[in-house]
Amino acid sequence: MTNHDQAKSMARSIRAALARDKIDISHSRALELAAAALGYADWNTASALLESPPDSSGKSNATDCIRFENCSPVLRIFDEAKAREFYIGFLGFQEVFQHRFEPGLPLYLGIARTGLQLHLSEHHGDASPGSTVFVPMTGIQAYHQELLDRHYSYGRPGLQKQEWGTQLEVHDPFGNRIRFCEKAG
């Protein structure tokens, strides 16, 4: 059994022990507790380091544990109402969080839809207007139809066949582009 497997087993044991005392926690919370008990900052760090095979000295190779998980592009916006109309009303995203240092200051808004998270920012230094984000996806035909069915006044995106796949490009009110693409196959 690897160290990684032992840590997962430890998490299952923690969860079972707490359940016997009528304390219900999620599996992910049990993994976080196991990681903390083993001296790691969080489960992602523990998992990466515990999976790394030891080098000749018996220590884990730190570069073997580097993993990128998700990317949340930051897009510059200038008007909260227009951003909500486009990203939530038209594209179908949901608000995940919003932050302002105090009322009246610029908005920083997190939105998400089925695995894609975007950050929208009114802060001057966060991003440049006119950025492009490339989003690999599946179900592009259905998404295209969903967007057309919304009858958005400022755009009716089309599908473009490219040699790498089918692409659907949308333009937000601030000059940013999102290229959704389903791989050719």
Automatic annotation (TrEMBL):
Segments crossing the lipid bilayer: none
Family: Belongs to the bleomycin resistance protein family.
Domain VOC: 67-183
Keyword list, A-Z: Antibiotic resistance
Pfam families per record: Glyoxalase_7 (PF19581), Glyoxalase_8 (PF20066)
PROSITE patterns: VOC
Name by which UniProt lists this protein: Bleomycin resistance protein
Keyword Transcription regulation on entry: no
